[in-house]
């Protein structure tokens, strides 16, 4: 998967304070980047992708703020793939696929239902020092 992400020609990185306003800013930035990259906001994947992004940023704001004063959002795309990650410095790595098997609830379950429903993938990548993580979502366009 890493090699696939490295080949995506469009990239944007945004770092924000871990505050509720980050959700709106992350979503608006995604909309602007997608438009600049020629990915129409009416594409059937874009609406669900924006909801997934909003849920992941909301989770960081709710659960990581004490240990992570900032979050970083990475956006990447090609003509047939959209990928993004939300990174914070909280060490907890949620079991993404547990949300689908009935062990998860709330926003993460929504993230996984939408991701899998669109034929996408989700992965948690821990920081090398074990004190943070990124949740990567990849969706076909």
- Computed Rg: 14 Å
Share of residues in strands: 25-35%
Instruction: Give the total of beta strands.
Output: 5
Work out the helix count: 4
Describe the structure.
With 141 residues, the chain is α+β, with helices and mostly antiparallel strands. Helices cover 36% and strands 27% of the residues. It contains 4 helices and 5 strands. The chain has helices spanning 2-6, 21-36, 46-63, 106-117, and strands at residues 10-17, 70-77, 81-88, 121-126, 133-140. The protein has a 5-stranded antiparallel sheet with strand order 1-2-3-5-4, with helices on one face. β2 (70-77) and β3 (81-88) form a beta hairpin. The longest helix is centred in the middle third of the chain and has 18 residues, at 46-63. The relative contact order is 0.20. The model has no long low-confidence stretch (mean pLDDT 91).
């Amino acid at each position: 998967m890493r090699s696939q992400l490295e080949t995506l020609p469009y990239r944007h990185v945004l770092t924000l304070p871990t505050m509720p306003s980050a959700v709106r800013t992350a979503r608006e930035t995604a909309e602007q980047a997608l438009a600049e990259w020629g990915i129409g906001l009416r594409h059937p994947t874009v609406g669900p992708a924006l909801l997934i992004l909003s849920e992941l940023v909301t989770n960081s704001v709710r659960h990581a703020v004490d240990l992570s004063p900032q979050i970083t959002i990475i956006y990447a795309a090609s003509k047939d793939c959209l990928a993004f990650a939300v990174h914070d410095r909280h060490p907890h790595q949620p079991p993404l696929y547990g949300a689908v098997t009935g062990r998860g609830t709330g926003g993460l379950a929504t993230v996984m239902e939408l991701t899998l429903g669109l034929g996408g993938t989700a992965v948690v990548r821990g920081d090398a020092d074990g004190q943070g993580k990124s949740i990567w979502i990849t969706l076909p366009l």
